[in-house]
Design brief:
heterodimer, A: 113 residues, five-stranded mixed sheet, 4 helices, B: 681 residues, alpha+beta, Beta-galactosidase, Chain A, domain 5, Glycosyltransferase, 2 domains, 16 helices, 29% helix
């Protein structure tokens, strides 16, 4: 199972995510006891830094939950409803993140098929 | 017969109490303070000297406030009560309640006043199904002048905070006041009851009402006035219609809620008490009905549904990429995935209806920014229709739930398990392709062809969609038509058999435009014939079918929203008189429901009963029933945008001498419609 570091590292050099076309905003991922990752999105163009900045949308959780969400084993929406994940700020950006994860999982599934 | 409960609401918060203003739970009645699909107060009982006061009268002052006039029982009609008790309550982010006790005598009174409070934090699904076993732990504590009632399951925390403005003895069961009232004296206190999520103050909403000069001051009062003022003004010789119209606007205002996905903008929840949540189909149809009156509902509905469109295959939620959601809930069972509503996508019609509304909104408002902004979502919805909606490649959208335990069996508007029946009353097998969904798909493709050509710079897509729509129409009129009975089958079932019941669904087909011109007259005759038309509206199922039941939820009752779409469908095919006839009949029924059309009422014939018979568990108010009078008005006045102008082509029954609707909003600014009743129905 990957770590949060490895997951963010995987996307560190990605400059554009077509699934985020039309989306502009900033995210802060606060992985409890592990670190902070700040992601800026401008109409699909993305930049990622391992740093704490104020963001439009902050998503805070522990590392196992974060990995489960990224890999599709846990649903971000119900995790937030359960109090496992704290979402602060612009909830539409959190929804976009949820949609992005879903679309990536779906793409992977279709490629495998 | 039990007295009707008193309900007040604002957004996703509502309070249901008895005629005293008390809240207590019983298997028969779902009382409480509810917010976000959770019951934050299950007991709220006032006693004076250990006795429950008697209600004198109860006023629903407004949709968000009520007051209760009470007196203590004296045990005999010959002794006047020495005092009166008034409770005034206003809901919003919890509720605020003012309690006033007045001594009417010349002698002092000593009173023991108590409010008992408790909360079971039940999920609305548990309340509805009377299943109250809980996985978490309850706690209570007194924090200074605040009583905290709490529930915790893992990190899921819900609390109710209750404070009193007057000093009280507070314990874990509630508040106690030992009051000495001088002759003709008065005593007051105010309660703030706050629904707290996660037990942290920062996460909580503030109560919207405060104790100002002893009167709850609603901070949405002005917005209700603005709401009503922004809608067209209706004047008519039929004064009942004015009352129905006013009631519809107020109910739509009451059912507005504010989604975090579109801060500050409202969209309609489906209905009180069970459906105070976002529903794809209901919000879309209500917004469609309300477009000529309060168009902002459509804009918010489209935005929120687009943002929450499906992105993955998820069998538990019946989710697929591009699909529009069915229902979104916030309670404990949804949070812990004991129910799939986070959101649940078990609807086969919301996706094409979403596209229908998108085009209709642009036609009325001229706002193509939204059509452009959500082009990707519209394309994803179109792709869902062909790739996932049509499960077996036969050219029709059909449904069969993937979530076999808690998913919906029927995923059309008639979504009760026994709604899709053959003429002999037997159940249809899955997967099911209901007829009206094919009509919606036809309409969606026609409309998206226009959007593709005019706004998405994609003439190839426009050509393809028009070709597909034409082919679907041709195929549908061949495969669904029952020549021996002269109407369209309700559905094709899993073995591609025609489900041969006569139902109101054929009226939706007229609304969609999929019906061949030569088949429309037969459909119109059925819709106003004695088997479908009850005299108060169009029955969901004809009374000569094997499955008919006048009090069957989807197999015989009359649903006003359904009748309103049927009326528009009749009108679109040129059946002006028939459209006016059923519109007026349904509006006349509203008189017997305090001018508010309920979710549904029984299908008994008007010849049998001088008044429409209630359906026992109908939601009221219900958003698309509140929208029905608006669509009836549009239909009778013949309102239709044509380019940048509003076409008015009235067909009003003679019994309504005249109607004027002033200030109809749209891409033309504001326009007026005048009509004289000229049609004999």
């Amino acid at each position: 199972m990957p770590t949060a570091h490895e997951i963010f590292q995987l996307h560190q050099f990605q400059k554009y995510e077509p699934l985020l076309r039309g989306v502009t905003g900033t995210y802060l991922f606060e992985i409890e006891g592990v670190g902070y990752w700040f992601i800026s999105v401008r109409d699909g163009a993305i930049s990622l830094e391992e740093v704490h900045h104020d963001a439009d949308c902050t998503i805070c959780c522990d590392e196992p939950d974060f990995i489960d969400i990224i890999e599709g084993r846990r649903n971000l929406i119900t995790a937030a409803m359960q109090g496992r994940v704290k979402v602060r700020g612009d909830i539409t950006l959190a929804q976009k993140f949820h949609g992005l994860v879903g679309a990536m999982i779906e793409n992977t599934r279709e490629e495998a098929a | 017969m039990r007295a009707k409960p008193v309900s007040i609401l604002e957004g996703d918060t509502f309070v249901v109490s008895d005629r005293r203003g008390d809240i207590s739970i019983s298997p028969e009645e779902a009382q409480g303070l509810f917010q976000g699909d959770t019951r934050f107060l299950s007991r709220w009982v006032l006693t004076v000297n250990g006795m429950l006061p008697n209600p004198l009268s109860t006023d629903d002052v407004n949709y968000f406030s009520s007051q209760f006039f009470l007196v203590p029982g004296t045990g005999t009609v010959y002794v006047d009560s020495p005092m009166s008790i008034v409770r005034q309550r206003a809901v919003g982010g919890g509720f605020h309640e003012d309690l006033k006790v007045t001594n009417h005598k010349s002698a002092p009174l000593d009173l023991d006043i108590r409010i008992e409070a408790d909360a079971d934090f039940a999920d609305l699904f548990q309340v509805k199904d009377a299943q109250l076993q809980r996985a978490g732990k309850f706690y209570k504590r007194v924090d200074g002048n605040r009583l905290v009632l709490g529930y915790q399951r893992e990190k899921f925390v819900r609390e109710t905070w209750v404070t009193s403005s007057a000093p009280a003895e507070i314990d874990e069961k509630g508040f106690r006041y030992r009051v000495h009232l001088e002759p003709h004296g008065e005593w007051r206190t105010g309660f703030d009851v706050l629904a707290a999520v996660d037990g942290t103050e920062a996460m909580n909403r503030r109560p919207k009402y405060k104790d100002v000069h002893d009167t709850p001051t609603p901070n949405v009062g002005m917005s209700l006035q603005s709401w009503k003022a922004s809608a067209p003004q209706l004047h008519t010789s039929w004064t009942d219609l004015e009352k129905i119209y006013e009631r519809a606007l107020v109910d739509l205002a009451a059912l507005r809620f504010f989604s975090p996905y579109a801060p500050g903008e409202a969209l309609p929840a489906a209905g009180l008490p069970w459906f105070m949540a976002l529903f794809g189909r209901d919000s879309i149809i209500t917004s469609f009905q309300a477009l000529p009156f309060v168009p902002e509902l459509a804009s918010t509905t489209l935005r929120v549904l687009a943002m929450r469109q499906g992105t993955r295959r998820d069998d538990f939620r019946d989710e697929e990429p591009g699909k529009i959601l069915h229902e979104s809930r916030m309670g404990e069972m949804t949070a812990f995935e004991e129910r799939p509503h986070s959101p649940y996508f078990g609807t086969a019609d919301a996706t094409p209806l979403f596209l229908v509304l998108m085009d209709e909104f642009e036609q009325w408002s001229g706002r193509h920014d939204l059509v452009t902004r959500f082009e990707a979502e519209a394309r994803a919805a179109l792709q869902w229709i062909d790739k996932y909606g049509d499960r077996d490649g036969d050219g029709y959208v059909e449904y069969e739930r993937r979530n076999k335990e808690t998913g919906l069996e029927n995923q059309c508007w008639k979504d009760s398990w026994d709604a899709i029946l053959f003429g002999d009353g037997t159940l249809a097998s899955y997967p099911i392709a209901t007829c009206e969904i094919q009509g919606y798909v036809y309409d969606a493709k026609r409309r998206c062809a226009r959007l593709a050509r005019e706004f998405w710079s994609d003439p190839d897509l426009a050509d393809r969609l028009e070709k597909e729509a034409d082919e679907l129409k041709q195929k549908f009129n061949r495969d669904f038509w029952l020549p021996e009975r002269q109407f369209f089958a309700l559905a094709l079932d899993g073995q591609k058999r025609k489900v041969d019941s006569l139902t109101s669904n054929i009226g939706h087909l007229l609304w969609s435009g999929i019906v061949d011109e030569d088949k429309a007259p037969a459909c119109a005759n059925h819709l106003i014939g004695p088997h479908l038309f009850s005299g108060w509206g169009v029955r969901t199922m004809a009374d000569n079918e094997g499955g008919y039941n006048p009090i069957g939820y989807h197999v015989g009752t009359v649903w006003p929203f359904d009748t309103s779409l049927v009326a528009l469908g009749l009108r679109n095919y040129g059946f002006k008189k028939e459209a006016a006839q059923i519109a007026v009949a349904d509006l006349e029924a509203a008189k017997y429901f305090q001018y508010r059309l309920p979710e549904a009422f029984a299908g008994y014939s008007r010849a049998e009963t001088d008044f429409p018979v209630e359906y026992p568990t109908a939601c009221s108010p219900q958003a698309w029933s509140a929208g029905a009078p608006l669509l009836f008005l549009r239909t009778m006045l013949g309102l239709q945008p044509v380019g940048d102008r509003l076409l008015v082509d009235p067909a009003v029954p003679k019994q309504i001498e005249w109607i004027e609707l002033l200030g109809i909003p749209g891409r033309w600014g504001r326009s007026d419609a005048f009509a004289r009743g000229q049609i004999a129905v």
